[in-house]
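Quick illustration for those who missed Monday's session on complexes.
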Amino acid sequence: MRETTPQPVFLADYQPPPFLVDTVALTFRLHPGRTQVLSEIRFRPNPAATPGHDLRLDGEGLRLLSASIDGKSLMAQPDATGLTIPAADLPEDGFLWQAEVEIAPEGNTALEGLYMSGGMYCTQCEAEGFRKITYYPDRPDVMARFRVRIESDLPVLLSNGNPVDSGPGWAEWDDPHPKPAYLFALVGGDLVATTDSFTTMDGRNVTLNIWVRHGDEGKTAYAMDALKRSMAWDEQVYGRAYDLDIFNIVAVDDFNMGAMENKGLNIFNSRYVLATPETATDADFASIERIIAHEYFHNWTGNRITCRDWFQLSLKEGLTVFRDQQFMGDMRSHAVKRIEDVLTLRARQFREDAGPLAHPVRPESYVEINNFYTATVYEKGAELIRMLRLLVGEDRYRAALDLYFIRHDGQACTIEDWISVFEEAGGRDLSQFKRWYGQAGTPRIDVTEDWQDGRYTLTLRQHTAPTPGQPLKEPLLIPVALGLMGTDGREILPTQVLELDSPTLRVTFDDLPERPVASVLRGFSAPVILHHKLQSDERALLLAHDTDPFNRFEAGRSLARENLHAMVLQQTTAPDQNFIDALRVLLRDDTLDPAFRALVLRLPEQDDLAASLHEAGHTPDPDMIYDMRRAAQTAIARALEPDLARIAQQMETPGPYDPAARDAGRRALRVQAVTILAHADGGTAAAALFQSAYNMTEQMGAWAALLAIGAGEQEGAEFYRHWAQDRLVLDKWFMAQILHASPDHAVPLTDELSRHARFDWKNPNRFRAVIGALGANPAGFHRSNGTGYQLVADWLLRLDGVNPQAAARNSAVFETWRRLDTNRQSLIRAELQRIAGNPGLSRDMAEMVARMLG
Ligand code: ARG
Ligand code: ZN
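Prediction with arginine bound:
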């Protein structure tokens, strides 16, 4: 709870730690209400800092039982955030700190520090949770060797590193790799493991365990498979091998984020571990694969090389996201993966960058660092690395990474360190590129063309609109991949990368046989908003013939967006015939990857349309967008009914279920076909698919298709009867109904489901499945009477009292409020002010609403 106004922390104020830690020995006596934590910490003065500092240790919510220095007990007086030992009481060349504290994991509903979930003990320390376990310099640039003893009657007791020894009621662990406290982890519970092994390229035999609650042991096979493939991939592609004898993964039901890369002991939200064909969708399988890989990859990019301070968060997160994207592309399809990644980037990061929560990939200040685990730090951070690779080339990228690992292994680093290895290995100055890390906002690129006497001129202009605290923007170095297509569909100029490094860049091409069709920003070579006016037949040409799969997709998407914009702005009820014709050609092209066809067939989401209308200077009307998107779907369904029906048949996968890309793509296209078809056939095909489905992808897809046309009640009841005992599937049951509810039904339904006996709102997954789902139903959430805003604000306030981090994260549903009409704006402003005025507000939430109110 907030006692004083929380002060922001500034990057510019960074000071090296006055004391370093060599070793930490911890003993835990686990007890739900009274866990004792004994610590022995060897400190020495940091030669890189000025001498004579007091010792400041972070600590929150701890009951200090005793403390001593070099065996001499002392009377430390803790304050709300830690304790200070005056320099005068500290031996000059190092000392042993010993302390005994008591904590209550059972009452820890914030899920930060040591807490309990479903009867087991677990931890979450990133970013600043370790200070809720014991007194410590809780900052990532203090790296130490940890040894841990756990005392408890629970059968499974785990911590970081390698097991030392264990006996009845105790276990000891030793982690030989120095690490910051945020990578500390402990687990205690009655758990069951799936065990396997992996031999590293340097011959180390590693035991792999995935620990779950009894009853879930049949759901770990895919996660284990993904782990082994991740380990092999990191060796092959980056030359990085695992460095301990054991790798443990634990699934917990109550977890604020996706997962956590604690050294040798990754802790996961159970939704990113547990899967069977019957209970998990293809999208779930893909998330598991990606997140298992992501956390594993952190062992090098994050753990061996960590961040100097939390402003550098993207150093590990952007890089690790980029690595997991490369991995997924290799495992599945690069073309499809790139399209999906860009869709996510636009839906989450562009949205963030366009509103009051915009911040640079490396922020300059924060009040609560947990509020900066964002799409900007993660996904835009990954885009910056993708651009760097494009700018220096694949070979020099690998050389830069080798240099990074050699030079910085065991260190806590900065973005400057990162840029330096690219300058050295890439042989070029990157000071302008570095602006990407400090400048918020999505650049816009305007493309204009000129064709005269056989000379084709392309002009690119960049502009970045102001963002909070950054009124003026400097030109960025933007790699723009370009190709030219002939009107017969042949490529005239293969991909080349232009470097747009000033406000304007003009390029000319002589001796072209005809005016070409430019394919700009191939592969989405930079995270920008591209404005390039083309005729619809030119877009259709790119959709049919571009050699770049991303831009093929993008041509279809632009056509769809332009059609929907026209429908919304002119209130016509049908898209152009040539758009429908282009979709038909695509649908019938059986040489195309089904996954690709599924993506092109999916119309831009309501939120995408709202954002793009706003970007084009209009005030988006959520109801109109909802109506027109449906009208477009209906028109497409009627025009393409026979083709869609054929696809729905043709894309049947015989089984047994295979989560790999080939079958997943077929299911995606099948579900997409049935979803559109429902707008013409009243849901007949979807109802049939629901009944025949042998996997969750098709069952869920079919049910959602029915819900979207106002049907599916019987199927919902059947679904509940069948799955009520499976907590992860139950989340889907809650979520789908709200996500697909009609605009006038969404709020009352959310309200009703929030009274459901199974709405366990303290569980972050369940909260997201209900309250979060309303926010993801734009026409429902943005009811013009404000009931959606009120309901969400009430729940945010309630959640803030028990789990500030989760509440703050969910509050971002309001981030787009300034693009709405004045009525909705004032309704949301009132709710944000109501939240802000709450006396007991957490600092997590206080910071979020203050930023949103601007
Ligand atoms: N480092 C984790 C990951 O990206 C995320 C953990 C963040 N947790 C938090 N409470 N902020 O894999
Ligand atoms: Zn991460």
